[in-house]
Amino acid sequence: NGNDPKYPNAAAGCTSWHTVVSGDGCWAIENAAGVPSGTLQRLNSGLDANCSNLWLGYAYCV
């Protein structure tokens, strides 16, 4: 959804986004987006190794 707030530390020029919903984690987001493991942290600086600090309702670069 283009109206969802964007994670402020997402990579500049990102063209593909995933909005976090309850129960999401890095693996689930990366799997749904079809991107390799570690992509979410690489494109969204500030995410911890376990993705335990995802912001519900925010769009992250994938």
Automatic annotation (TrEMBL):
GO MF annotations in UniProt: chitin binding
InterPro entries noted in UniProt: LysM, LysM1-like, LysM_dom_sf
Pfam families the UniProt entry points to: LysM (PF01476)
Domain LysM: residue ranges: 16-62
Record keywords: Chitin-binding, Virulence
Protein name: LysM domain-containing protein
Organism from which the protein derives: Delitschia confertaspora ATCC 74209
